[in-house]
Amino acid sequence: MSPAGKVFAASDALRGISADLSPKALMWVSGVAVMFVSLAFAAAVSSQWDTYLRFRTADLLGVTDLSIEWTLAFTYSAFRSMSYCRVTWRFLRSALSQFLAIRLFGLRSLSQVRSYDADNTARHLILLLFILAGTLAWGFYLDHYELVYSTLGVVYGAGYAAAHVTRVVFWMMLGASILACALLVLAYRRPRIKFLAIGIGVYALLYIGGVLALPPLVQAFVVRPSELVRETPYLNHYIDFTRKAYNLGGIQETAYPALTDLTPEVLSRNQDTIQNVRLWDSRPLLQTYQQTQAIRLYYQFYNVDVDRYHLSDGYHQ
């Protein structure tokens, strides 16, 4: 702000253009903008009120997820609540990053500002980065729980790549975010824009290489060539938890032994019936073919039909 109380733009594109706004008017404009964004965000969050109620009234599972070696001491609704909090944090850090970009763009004209004002601007930038790094750390912590919904492997859930690579990368990024927060606290006393830019670049490279690139590369070049061997433990885990989800553990099996009182005379009198007994059920047969071949990557079956043909020895399916 100039001594006359006017606000000047900091970027080269708007250099020299002043807005005839007093500090009080600027405060009102900023307040209205913040109120508008807050109402829009609250309207989006308000639709999740039932998720909060399910979280407060739900029972605990107490089931251990072996694929990621954690005890699931929360319900599905609780996880969805945490996941939605993760979305809200991402919205917050997205908004902060936008404001951060504006501040960085304005730093090009700091040569025209006194050193005291430049240091204050740099400290403001460091404070925003600290909040951003904290939200990133919280997001990576919640990302661990979302591995149970991973679609990277052959099963819906944590497979080989998610359990051995993605989980480790999330812990590394969580540690990097905490370390960034500590370094920002130290940098607050002696701000250096150059070091901040280098730190942001290193963090971005870690995110791109570790989170975005490494898990798909491991899935494509390590897991997929020997997919059946590497994914078998997770396939068994997937089947086990599917049985638990549908409460199939309480099913009682009853044996119906075959009758032995049929005679050749009875069979000969019912040849039309015997010849038309369907030997295959197309519905489980199609599912079996699809599940068996999906992990072998040989064929893909779209349908199974039962046809009947007139042959020289009769009518056959």
Textual characterization of the structure:
With 317 residues, this protein is mostly helical. It is built from 10 helices and 6 strands. It has helices spanning 23-45, 49-57, 76-106, 115-145, 160-189, 193-223, 227-245, 264-269, 271-275, 282-294, and strands spanning 7-8, 18-19, 63-65, 70-72, 309-311, 314-316. Strands 1-2 form a two-stranded antiparallel ribbon. Helix 2 crosses helix 3, helix 3 (76-106) runs antiparallel to helix 4 (115-145) and helix 4 packs antiparallel against helix 5 (160-189). The longest helix has 31 residues, at 76-106.
For the biggest sheet, the summary is: 2 strands, antiparallel
With strands numbered from the N-terminus, the spatial order across the biggest sheet is 1-2
N-to-C span: 89 Å
SSE succession: EEHHEEHHHHHHHHEE
pLDDT averaged residue by residue = 76
Low-confidence stretches: 1-19, 108-114
Number of helices: 10
The dominant shape is elongated
